[in-house]
Amino acid sequence: MAQLPLFGQGPQVLLDDAGGRVVYTPGLVPGATAQAWFAQLLDGVAWRGGRRLMYEREVDVPRLRAHFDLADPALPPPLREALAAVRGAAHAPFTSVGLNLYRDEHDSVAPHSDKLEDLARGQPIALLSLGATREMVIRAKRPPRRALHLDLEAGSLLLMDYASQFHYDHGIPKQRAPMGPRISLAFRARPPTA
């Protein structure tokens, strides 16, 4: 499927079938606010790299990461403000936020679905984008393997329901053209610990 054209500023339902629901809201956060949060988080977060086993060898994770418990009193103010904006749109009991920093066109995340044991049953995943626009590919896991190619703009929200993780993968591919940095804020509701 070709690049998905998006018009308007309200929520846009991208998928809504037996496999799950995915909704994109451009401009959830005004551009100036998104830019301010981006700058504060880029300079104010202790970003970390990582290594992982892939294709029987250890490789660098192609992005930087950070994670915060949303109940942490030391939660950076931009994350507290972003949480309020996301909760206003998603109405979910989010408890954590994972940050991904895509430094340039070479950084990426492979197609994947979130680990369901790490999510409270029935709760969505909300991705708020800051910084440069990057393409996300959402692809069905089974035939017909339809794919959506979506430009995630600064200040936009992508909301994926719990069921979508069973039936769709999502990823941020590497790009050939030069790209500026992007930060993704992934809000999740974690299951209660025993």
Strand content: 35-45%
Question: How does CATH name the architecture?
Answer: Sandwich
Q: What Rg is obtained from the alpha carbons, in whole angstroms?
A: 16 Å
Low-confidence stretches: 1-6
Instruction: Order the strands across the largest sheet as they lie in space.
Output: 1-2-11-8-13-6-5
- Per CATH, the superfamily is Alpha-ketoglutarate-dependent dioxygenase AlkB-like
Task: Describe the global form.
Answer: globular
| Number of distinct helices | 3
Notes on the protein architecture:
- The chain is α+β, with helices and mostly antiparallel strands.
- It has a single domain (23-166), classed as Jelly Rolls (Sandwich).
- Helices cover 16% and strands 38% of the residues.
- The strands form three sheets. Strands 1-2-11-8-13-6-5 form a seven-stranded antiparallel beta sheet. The chain has a four-stranded antiparallel beta sheet with strand order 7-12-9-10. The protein has a two-stranded antiparallel sheet with strand order 3-4.
- The longest helix has 14 residues, at 31-44.
- The radius of gyration is 16 Å and the shape is globular.
- 28% of the residues are buried.
- Residues 1-6 have low confidence and may be disordered.
